[in-house]
Amino acid sequence: xxxxxxxxxxxxxxxxxxxxxxxxxxxxxxxxxxxxxxxxxxxxxxxxxxxxxxxxxxxxxxxxxxxxxxxxxxxxxxxxxxxxxxxxxxxxxxxxxxxxxxxxxxxxxxxxxxxxxxxxxxxxxxxxxxxxxxxxxxxxxxxxxxxxxxxxxxxxxxxxxxxxxxxxxxxxxxxxxxxxxxxxxxxxxxxxxxxxxxxxxxxxxxxxxxxxxxxxxxxxxxxxxxxxxxxxxxxxxxxxxxxxxxxxxxxxxxxx
Length: 256
Hints:
- This protein is mainly α.
- Helices cover 75% and strands 2% of the residues.
């Protein structure tokens, strides 16, 4: 009976949802220009960055990151996409995934595809910027304690905490994911967790901490291409830091 239920669930619902989600996520990644983008809002077609005296340097950093991304390509399967930035087709496809997965979550709770449906739903909601709803799905999945999703789900749960401004909990989970990923030799998850933290620190303009996190990544990652990308990013952060210091010194000379 269980095997028949899995069979019918797979071909009637899960296969379609998975196919649509994988295609849609691939398109989302193609549209992401900055691998170190944490969150980007759009107003009148232009990106908005934190408005303070370092905005010019932040824009320079983003432009450099776009150039780096052209060299190295999209590096992550989940980097902080903002659903409002996507085309109507992508948002429609994400909604289709949520609707199809909801049938599994509602009627096929005994199916082995139930955890997969929870995870896809959580990610689809995250991409649509429905962070609270996504968080509830990731928390529910964490309660199932499935080996397949324990680590990667914790990473996505950490992302929702960060987006919902629960920074302490989010950063704590990120550190747990990094440590466990190193122990289990889960290189892709370690890379993604580290990039998540670097991106968050840049968004918060905590450049000294971001440099430290870049060095930790370089010391522990086994991905030479990603290490080169992060090393380039670290150089850009150093440049920004120097420019900021020079700006402050110039202001001190003028006003004092």
